[in-house]
Design goal:
alpha+beta; Alpha-Beta Plaits; four-stranded antiparallel β-sheet; 11 helices; 15 strands
């Protein structure tokens, strides 16, 4: 036996102290890493698109500059115009001198030239072109971007954005041009639910126009499993921002990151948010960081652009018979949401039935979404159904 044999108790104590030291170092490193990472962005949020539940959030109600995330609203109003036949994808829009002068990200359109509506949509969704955002604004609202910005804010308020003010169509710097991560999430959900047929434009990885190819700045497209959109943003004041959506196993999530220090942080934080969201939702986790933010109220469309062309109608109480709304036949319908899974749509059908007494149908559209709809009722009955649904927290809009 060696004279240098060490007592087993001493070995155990030394091992314990070594492991304790390693663990302490690991905890400190983790704290420094995540603390530094958190300091590199201003706000973040991840939510379930179908239910509106926020799965995790940081500073989601803090005011920030949205930069080019503003263009989500510009495209929302463009899609509304397409839906109501005020625009068509093959229409051509005239470029003004004011639009041609936009800086710095642009297609380089010349004053007096024309661009097709669908190309304009792609230019904004993929390349975030400021000159094209101005073209859309001027052609949609009386030739002046300022008029369009006022419309953007009014519609934002109607669909539930509580802390958003738009001063232009592109997100170029303006001290009064503000929003929050929560509001941006709501706006993005509104696009997805109200205009699912146009959602594809946010998932285009690259686009060629006049011989030049433009690449989408959303790095998660093509790299993050299930990512299907949506939009990036940057100005010197706003820093780097990103909205990213992803779908896995019939679960569709949205992540919002505002004020990241650079593109790498922007992509990393969005990835972290989505990973965390899928982990929580797959485990059935219902614990959220702030109870007041647990549910992002699903926005309603109700043809917002058309409403501002005339006096906003007065609210009227729905007529009930035996606790159900009395419906008449007609050519009007109500959509109570569009869902990525059939199960979610079935649950919505049950909610609609419970609230209105109405049996809704599930229709699968060309993009794979399951729409919950009632058709063939009168205008007044549709309005009554919509009012009852909204009063009970059900997202819906009337269509013809």
């Amino acid at each position: 036996m060696s004279i240098f044999t060490i007592d087993p108790i001493i070995i155990f104590l030394l091992s314990f102290l070594t492991m304790k030291r390693i663990l302490s170092i690991f905890i400190c490193w983790s704290f420094l890493f995540w603390g530094a990472n958190a300091a590199q962005y201003r706000a973040a949020l991840v939510a379930d698109i179908d239910s509106g539940h926020v799965l995790y959030q940081e500073n989601a109600n803090e005011l920030n500059y949205p930069a080019s995330l503003t263009k989500i609203m510009t495209l929302y109003l463009t899609f509304d115009a397409l839906e109501h036949k005020r625009l068509h994808l093959d229409d051509y829009l005239i470029v003004s001198q004011y639009a041609a002068d936009a800086q710095p990200v642009k297609l380089g359109l010349t004053a007096g030239s024309k661009i097709r509506v669908e190309d304009a949509i792609k230019a904004v969704a993929v390349h975030s072109a400021n000159d094209v955002a101005r073209v859309l604004a001027e052609n949609l609202k009386g030739g002046k971007e300022g008029n369009f910005a006022g419309l953007m804010t009014r519609v934002a308020n109607e669909i539930g954005l509580q802390n958003t003010n738009f001063e232009n169509s592109s997100g170029l710097p303006n001290d009064d041009h503000m929003s929050t991560a929560r509001d941006i999430a709501l706006l993005s959900m509104a696009v997805y639910k109200h205009f699912p047929q146009y959602w594809k434009y946010f998932g285009i990885k690259s686009w060629t126009y006049n011989g030049k190819t433009y690449t989408n700045g959303n790095r998660l497209l093509g790299t993050y499993p299930g990512c299907d959109g949506m939009k990036t943003g940057f100005t010197n004041k706003s820093k780097y921002s990103l909205v990213a959506t992803a779908e896995r196993d019939n679960k569709h999530l949205i992540a919002v990151v505002l004020g990241a220090e650079n593109k790498d942080v922007r992509a990393a934080v969005a990835t972290k948010m989505l990973n965390l969201g899928f982990t929580k939702i797959n485990k059935g986790t219902t614990e959220y960081t702030k109870p007041s933010m647990n549910h992002v109220v699903a926005p309603t469309q109700n043809n917002p652009v058309a409403k501002y062309a005339e006096t906003k109608p007065e609210y009227t109480e729905p007529v009930y018979e035996n606790n159900n709304i009395s419906y008449n036949y007609g050519n009007t319908g109500v959509q109570f949401g569009a869902f990525s899974s059939y199960d979610s749509a079935q649950k919505q059908v049950a909610r609609v039935k419970n609230v209105t007494g109405l049996s809704a149908n599930i229709e699968k559209n060309s993009t794979g979404l399951y729409r919950v709809r009632v058709t063939g009722i009168s205008e007044s009955a549709a309005q009554s159904a919509k009012d009852a649904a909204i009063a009970n927290g059900i997202d819906c809009f009337v269509f013809h």
